[in-house]
């Protein structure tokens, strides 16, 4: 490690779950140092192996490295879904979105041979969100969920059936106005956390008249990175950890407090939320 490197590297990685070469995920890097936070690597497509290369470079230079991953990272249940999926789903389904249930029965995603486990082993990161906030050095992993973050950062998305339809591959539901609204919400979320070099990227994304699925993956990678940045720099009560390190968890922004539907679903299922 470069002894002069006093910055923290935050990697946002939308993994696409299955490591399909024809449909890779996307990655971005935010660096946080004495001069504030800036977008060091704008979102670009990346496989699990390519993501590991990016992360290796970052942790070679940074004092601390956080990987904010849009994929379940702790999946002990053989079937069904995790308690945290059900809690998140209580809000996401209400706003008109969906939560992919995570279990070991999902071949290619969470079975013993799934790429996520090889990725985690190669990464060798500490999975302890609270320690990630306070530790002075090390590599840490966080599970995040962009759809839940969007509901928290933009009130217009957080009402009955108001989830943004911004997936270009779902042509019947996709709305270009929602795509533009997501780009603007991401820009404002970055501004809230004083992220530099973001406005231009969001403006270009918003101006795209025919975005593709790969463009959505890049936006989601940026949201992942912003959730990680927010976890670090915002007061702790402006973020939430749903679930636990035994059964699975998610980190999400909670700028205006935790939505009552999440609280109610967590109480009903005896799932920690803090």
Q: Could you please describe the fold and organization of this structure?
A:
With 274 residues, the chain is α/β, with parallel strands linked by helices. The chain has one domain. Helices cover 38% and strands 19% of the residues. The chain contains 9 helices and 8 strands. It has helices at 48-61, 83-92, 115-123, 129-134, 146-153, 176-192, 199-207, 213-233, 260-269, and strands spanning 8-14, 25-33, 36-46, 64-69, 138-143, 195-196, 239-244, 248-253. It has a 6-stranded mixed sheet. A hairpin with a 2-residue loop joins strand 2 (25-33) and strand 3 (36-46). The longest helix is centred in the C-terminal third of the chain and has 21 residues, at 213-233. It is globular. It starts with 7 loop residues before the first strand and ends in a 5-residue tail after the last helix.
Indicate the topology.
Blueprint: E1 8-14, E2 25-33, E3 36-46, H1 48-61, E4 64-69, H2 83-92, H3 115-123, H4 129-134, E5 138-143, H5 146-153, H6 176-192, E6 195-196, H7 199-207, H8 213-233, E7 239-244, E8 248-253, H9 260-269
Keywords:
single chain; 6-stranded mixed beta sheet; 274 residues; two-stranded antiparallel ribbon; globular
Helix vs. strand class: alpha/beta
N-to-C CA distance: 34 Å
Low-confidence regions: none
On the 0 to 100 scale, the average pLDDT is 95
The beta-strand count equals 8
The ordered H/E elements are: EEEHEHHHEHHEHHEEH
Radius of gyration: 17 Å
SS element count, helices: 9
Number of domains: 1
As a percent range, the share of helical residues equals 25-40%
